[in-house]
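Class, study these two lines:
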Amino acid sequence: MEASENQAKKPAFDAIMLAMDAVDTLVHRENVKLDELNRDQYRDALKAKMREYNLLQGREVSDELLEAAVDEMEKGLYVYKAPKHGIELSLARAYTRRGVYGRRVGIALAAAASVSVLAWTGYHFSVVVPRERELARIEQLYTVDLPNKLAVAVKDARDAAHTAGDDADLTEIARIESSGKQGIEIRDEQVVVRAIQSAEAVTKGMKQKAFVGLLKHQADDVVASAAKESMDANARKLIDAKLDVLRMRAEEADGRQFDILKDEIAATLKFIRTPYTLRIVNRKGVYTAFWRFEKQDRSKKAWYATVEAIDASGKPASADIFDAETSQTNRVRMFAVRIPEGKFDAIAADKKADGILDDSLGGTKPAGSIDFKWAFETVNNQMITKGWEIR
């Protein structure tokens, strides 16, 4: 019976826990200096504080309850004990610090992602983009550029062959075209380029051939026109020499020199068919007559009179003059004929009298001839094409 009463008076567990909570709070808030009190004083002070704390909370606790709470606390049941090290503790700590670890892992992942992005960007622009650009260039080359160039080169070659009147080369052009298309099909750029170059070479050859044919045709027209002209043997010899050079320029496809020579022949034919009067020149800047040492013998003098050919209208004309000193024929408007010393003196005296040359007639040039009929004596009909200028 007594035992049951004692058991009935034993505080409930939840009451003990409330008291223990109060004890912990008092220990921390009031900072009770346990070391300075003896055990009984400590227990009494602790119980007094617990009672006061519970009264402040509106609860009234018995002495038995306070006594039991102090006993439980002294047993160390509610004293914190550090956990033992192990996997469970490590996992628990990792879980409680997951925020810190998460940030660190996030930073590491972000850094790794940045490195990955940079690596991908570098690979993309240094490898992928150039590779794709090269693939696009190759596709453009074999589907557009080379086919177009080949087509243009072949068309030009065919057109040139037709213009030149040489259909025999069409077979070669067809072979070149086939070779180029095969190169495109197997994507061999060198084969296609060689085919294009071959077609261009054919075009150039055909154009030159056509041009040569055109020049020859023009040369034949000039020859035919010259054959109709009436002229003496010396004039014919001069024209024939010029026509031979004209044919040579046509074979060489030298269009510029061909045109120059053709114009010169036309002027020579005009000179041959036209009669001219030869007149001794008497004007400023030109010696009317002059002397110089002979080219072959510097101890001897040679005397000359300066002459020009005048047409019916009074205009000077160009003439083909064989230069005795250079052994070349030059087309000039003014030349000098070698005369005896007596004629030189007569010309000098005539001009010295009043500054006017009264006897200026040098001779004539008949139509159909290049030879001059002099009105005075000459020395072997020798002429030069320079040396009369007053400097």
The first strand starts at residue 276 and ends at 280. Confidence is low (pLDDT under 50) at residues 1-8. DSSP finds eleven helices and ten strands in the chain. Residues 194 and 251 are 28 Å apart (CA to CA).
